[in-house]
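SEQUENCE-TO-STRUCTURE ENTRY
===========================
What this section holds: a protein sequence and its matching fold, both as plain text.
Question of interest: how does this chain fold, as expressed in backbone structure tokens?
***
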Amino acid sequence: MTQHDELAGWLRLTLTPGIGDVTMRRLLAAFGMPAAVFAQPVAALRQVVGAAQAEALRTPPPELPALLEATGQWLTASPEEGITRRLVTLADEDYPASLLQTADPPPMLYVMGAAGLNLKQAERSLAIVGSRNPTPQGASNARSFARALGEAGVTVVSGLALGIDGAAHEGALDAAAGTAARLATVAVVGTGLDRVYPARHRELAHRIARQGLIVSEFPLGTPPLGANFPRRNRIIAGLSRGTLVVEAALQSGSLVTARIAVEQGKEVFAIPGSIHSPQSRGCHALIRQGAKLVETAADIFEDLRFAPADAMASPAQAVPPAGDATPAERALLDAIGHDPVSLDALVARTGWSAAELQARLLELELSGCLARLPGGLFQRIGQA
């Protein structure tokens, strides 16, 4: 059988009406490879699936030729030197064991990334997920933890979404810069791999493809449908030894990932935040439910027993510390605290005029110790 025929068999299974992932795995377990499934008489198929499904399996889906051609072209294209494209199925030795052991492993994975890398190299991995609209501190934390983990050789798995996901991928890539080729990060997406979503992460996706992998279970051409993103969360959790939630509201897809991780018997970690921040409430809820509260990457290493965490006493700094700040700047940072604060509140706390505060706040913002938030609020960043 040619590779073209084998590919056609797998794609035909995914396109057959009424054949979902569970039924597909049942058919493969009963008959072997897809070609053997389609060679079965209806009577044999009806021993495994219903009558309507058995009849559907006898007729090639009309959209198969177009998808087969598009997938074949995608697999053989060379968008950039050193980047490869491949299809990993349940029958392949490169299928990751960690995902295979979950309750709902996807039968097929589209994979694009650096030549020489594969998903089985993600054995030492951690998922980092969180809000699409994080606070500046949350984004800083995600990038810092990802960098600290990456420097210890841990693969960071996330979903390429805006916010925490993007910051986590960036931190992992920062850690891998200039090092020997290794699997820095894995982005599990909810679209076909012939498109990048969100579009503003196009450059980040290209960076990941050069030193990591981008993965999808969805066929080429699949648009960003809302139902696909919660579904891909089981792959993020399944590939990883544990899941770190950096920031999340109470109604958040990140909590879905954490729940799936618990169901898979994986560790869940959460970073606490301000009691006044809606973006911290999901993490606080997880901690109340038994997730481990973490303050440094060393806390994660201790639980997962990856490797000695000599350099993990604190997360890598994403922003300059305030050690070089003047006494007046340190006094202002103390007045700000670690919660978002308004200019009026700072006037009351410091006794300084609004004009003087605006000037000093701008200096702190330019030095990377402070972020300006919507609504006229200010927030201290990092360990300043």
About this structure: The chain has three domains: 1-73, 114-304, 327-380. Residues 327-380 form a domain with the Arc Repressor Mutant, subunit A fold (CATH 1.10.10.10). The longest strand covers residues 83-89.
